[in-house]
Write a structure and sequence with these properties.
Number of domains: 2
CATH class of the largest domain: Alpha Beta
Number of strands: 12
Radius of gyration: 19 Å
CATH superfamily of the largest domain: Spore Coat Polysaccharide Biosynthesis Protein SpsA, Chain A
Shape: globular
Number of helices: 12
CATH architecture of the largest domain: Alpha-Beta Complex
Structural class: alpha/beta
CATH topology of the largest domain: Spore Coat Polysaccharide Biosynthesis Protein SpsA, Chain A
Largest sheet: 9 strands, mixed
Length: 335
């Protein structure tokens, strides 16, 4: 039996500067009838991350050497909440009613995959971060191109939106302010670790095609500051993705492999298409941050392409096998 309503799960590694704002945003929620706990899965921080977590009364779990998703899986085993809320240290809940609205929506829709937060721009964000989060709502134009589209079914009196997800599971979700019912964890395959790019798409394909959102429930995602940060993140993400494909079943973009992935590379490589699309969105939404669309697409394409090359050409097969095993150890917590 769950003995609190919500378990916040936050993986942390040297996140002192961002963690305070993240935890403060949870504490300021106006939902006195909701009980919750905060689980910090620390990957071996050398700064004051653990001390900050303790100051806010969090439960700190030792996840040294584990990557974020494996650290989350470790926290899932310790969570006591009826619902699991996923945040990263670089997230900050916007507003004070998230903890009241999100669980209530899930109670009304027990068959939903979960409740997804909107990305909301923050005054201290750079224009690049505003575009990647507030405009794209997905943090990468390449992923946005590949993602399947959701369909709005209804809007409830409190503003909660009920969406239908694509049947092929081609919609990346499950992080940065995502909350779901803990019973879904029972469907996590024992032969594979928790990977949100795999786990939630699998659930969608098995029939959990309802997604909840509400415009009043958002998170500030302090994702990147500079173009260099973004370029490096895309490289690293692609290398990890290519290695992960060797040990896990189909991820959210399984239907987009092959032709559609190459189409995405060609589309953003031409610049002209993204330039027209970004200009149109800037005019339609009255948001000049959309004008970064062609440049961000080009940087993402270069970063993703370099990541693929580093994977395919930078290592021989024996080296890749060793890297895959090392990644497996980091992505699967000990039982």
């Amino acid at each position: 039996m769950a003995d609190c309503h919500v378990s916040f799960v936050i993986p942390v590694l040297n996140s002192e500067k961002l963690l305070t704002d993240c935890l403060r945003s949870i504490r300021r929620q106006d939902a006195p009838h909701i009980t919750y706990e905060i689980l910090i899965a620390d990957g071996g921080s050398h700064d004051r991350s653990v001390a900050v977590a303790q100051e806010y009364g969090c439960r700190v779990l030792v996840a040294t050497g584990l990557m974020a998703e494996a650290a989350k899986q470790m926290a899932f085993r310790e969570a006591r909440g009826e619902y699991i809320a996923l945040l990263d240290a670089d997230n900050e809940i916007a507003g004070t009613d998230w903890l009241r609205v999100a669980p209530a929506a899930l109670e009304r829709h027990p068959d939903a995959l979960g409740f997804e937060s909107y990305y909301v721009k923050h005054p201290r964000h750079t224009h690049l971060n505003c575009y990647l989060t507030g405009c794209l709502q997905i943090s990468d134009p390449y992923a946005r191109f590949l993602a399947g589209r959701v369909r709005l079914e209804t809007r409830e009196p409190d503003g909660t939106e009920v969406f239908e997800l694509p049947a092929d599971g081609s919609y990346p979700t499950g992080a940065n302010g995502f909350i779901f019912h803990r019973h879904l964890l029972e469907k996590l395959p024992s032969i594979h670790g928790y990977h949100e790019a795999v786990f939630f798409p699998q659930l969608i394909r098995t029939g959990f095609r309802k997604l909840l959102k509400n415009p009043t429930c958002g998170v500030h995602h302090h994702y990147v500051t500079t173009w260099g940060d973004y370029f490096r993140k895309r490289q690293r993400a692609m290398v990890i993705y290519m290695l992960r494909r060797e040990e896990t079943p189909a991820a959210w973009d399984a239907g987009g492999r092959g032709g559609r992935q190459w189409l995405a590379l060609a589309w953003f490589g031409t610049v002209l298409g993204p330039l027209l699309a970004g200009t149109w969105e800037a005019i339609r939404q009255h948001d000049p941050d959309w004008l970064l669309h062609p440049l961000a697409g080009a940087v993402s394409t270069m970063g993703n392409s370099l990541g693929i090359l580093r994977y395919k050409l930078g290592t021989d097969r024996a080296r890749r096998i060793a890297l895959t095993q090392a990644l497996h150890n980091k992505m699967n917590p000990p039982t």
